[in-house]
Structures are given as C-alpha cells and as structure tokens.
Design goal:
CATH topology of the largest domain: Rossmann fold
CATH architecture of the largest domain: 3-Layer(aba) Sandwich
Mean pLDDT: 97
Radius of gyration: 17 Å
Strand content: 25-35%
Distance between the termini: 31 Å
Strand order of the largest sheet: 3-2-1-4-7-15-16
Bound molecules: ribulose-5-phosphate
Number of helices: 6
Shape: globular
Number of strands: 16
Number of domains: 2
Structural class: alpha/beta
C-alpha cells in the first residue's frame, strides 16, 4: 500500500537518498532550494568524510557552514564528481527548468564543473514538456524591456521578479525575468538561442547541463531515473 508522504517528507526522502552519490574524500557540488536544504541536513552526517563543498548560493553557503561543512570557492577546484540540486521542472531526458530560488547562474556554473548532475525532486516536478513553470532568466537590469519584447515574440509574458515591492536582486547583483506561456519543446536549441540574447546572464533552461540522474520522491518511495 503506497505511503502518504507530505511534500516536505518527499524532499527529505530524496535529500537522504542523494547521499549515496556523494564520493567520500571528494568535494561535492551543492545546489539551492528547499529540497537541497534537506540534502544539506543529511550531508551533515557525512561531513567528516568529505573534503568540502562548492556552493551555488549565499543561502546554501550559510546552511553548509552552519552544519560544519567547509565551503570552497569554485575557482579552487578543477572538477567535481557530482553536483546535487533540485529543479522546478524536469523532463524525460533530464533537461530542467531551474531558478525558482533565483540561484540559476551559480547553479549552472557549479553544474558545469561536475561530471554528473543528480537532480533531487518530488514527483510533481516531472513533466512531459518544459514551460508550465514560468522560466526564470537572470538578466542585466537595463535589458529588461527589450528582453520582455523578445520573449513576447515567442508567445511568452515576462515580468521582473519582485521582492518587498522592488525588483529582486540576485546574489550577482542582477534581476530575474519570469517568463510564462512558453512551451519548450527543444530545450537544447532554446537554451542556446536565449543565452545569446544581449542582456541575458543565464537562461533557466538546463539542457547543456542536464541531469544524468533524478531521484524522484513518489508515493511509493524514491524512484531513480537515469538519462545517460
Ligand atoms: C533555485 C532552484 C531550485 O533548485 C528550484 O527552484 C527547486 O527548488 P525547491 O527544491 O525549493 O522546490 O533552481 O534557483
């Protein structure tokens, strides 16, 4: 009989399950978000077995340090064996939409350092086609209007993400556009195109840095999907 988990319990379940991908003695890449927070809590039990972490946000850095894990600068490492992060959406090929927590640029940088991206998510994140979740795009503020028009030409509606009545400012000092109404049927081509638009810092489509593994929290436990 399937168990009734809350969404929070599913996040904790996949957060713990991700420990099996952490390589003892090595540095682990750590993403951002509520699911990753569960992973960081679980990683605390292995803190003496790892050489530290490279973090994708100020929020994750603070949480990692609070549990006693050393955080290293991304420039201090040549490569990582694994990067563990959540997603707002993931499709059947491991392509994702990310950036709900506004950390997409650093997430993409750390993911690019890693041999393997392990996505941790509850099953509500698995979709046939990316785009139901508004696409986060980190931008240079002066490009907001022009980029809004470019997304409109694709059928999207872009809005600058707000926080406390003003544009939210990312860890990198930039803004986030959230674009709804897109149907991203070719994630790789879409990411390549949008990434070239002047003023785009990072598009929240992760197709070039897609996941190789997804640990999906489901009513019957952790489902493991492999994409390579
Ligand atoms: C942050 C992200 C997160 O991974 C994504 O928003 C999922 O977050 P959560 O685990 O809280 O659902 O991309 O920029």
């Amino acid at each position: 009989m399937p168990q009734r988990w809350t969404q929070d319990e599913l996040k904790a379940l996949v957060g713990r399950a991700a420990l099996r991908y952490v390589v003892p003695g090595e540095i682990v890449g750590v993403g951002t978000g509520s699911t990753v927070n569960k992973f960081i809590d679980a990683l605390a039990s292995m803190k003496d077995q790892i050489a530290g972490a490279v973090s994708s946000s100020e929020a994750s850095t603070e949480r990692l340090r609070a549990v006693g894990i050393t955080v290293l600068d991304a420039n201090a490492v040549d490569r990582l064996s694994v990067y563990i992060d959540g997603a707002d959406e993931i499709d059947g090929q491991g392509c994702m939409v990310k950036g709900g927590g506004a950390a997409l640029t650093r997430e993409k940088i750390v993911a690019a350092l890693a041999d393997r991206f392990v996505c941790i998510a509850d099953e509500s994140k698995l979709v046939a086609t990316l785009g139901a979740f508004p696409l986060p795009v980190e931008i240079i503020p002066m490009a907001a209007r022009r980029l809004g028009a470019q997304f409109a030409s694709l059928g999207g509606q872009a809005g600058v993400r707000q926080h406390a009545g003003a544009p939210l400012v990312t860890d990198n000092g930039q803004w986030i556009l959230d674009v709804s109404g897109l149907k991203i049927t070719q994630p790789l081509a879409f990411e390549t195109m949008v990434s070239q638009w002047p003023g785009v810092v990072t598009a929240g489509v992760f197709a070039h840095q897609r996941a190789q593994v997804c640990l999906l929290g489901t009513a019957s436990g952790v489902r493991e999907l492999h994409f390579d």
